[in-house]
User: Fold this.
Amino acid sequence: MHPKIIEDYQCCGVDVRKIVGTMIRHAPKGCLDGLDTVEILDSSPGGKGFACYHKESRRIHLFVRNLIAWQPWLLRKSVVFPYLTIGLALGHEIDHHVNRDNEEVEKEVHAEAKALDYIFPFFLIVKPIKKLVTYLRKKD
Ligand SMILES: [Zn+2]
Assistant:
């Protein structure tokens, strides 16, 4: 079962709903189990932070203004860059969800390290770049 996606944001000319939907459809099996909702909101109540996870209600909040507004127009339009920033934030919070009852891990360190593991389509974009870099390295 996939979490519901709720959107309530006006900022900033990026279709965050579409990006989040793609990420959720391709997330590794099991990591979203029990997650109730991903809420895409304009900004956080305190104006700080990119995202947060609410353990009691099993919700992830993403704050679009904090994630996207600082990015120059060209970066926003690049698709890859919004994908990366949203992916890092969403993946971080998915890790908090996965490890919500795991007392063994240092939660923030773990979430930082694992964020992109949950964001499969991101690697579809990055893979050809990685291959090219590997190829160029072999040539010298
Ligand atoms: Zn965190």
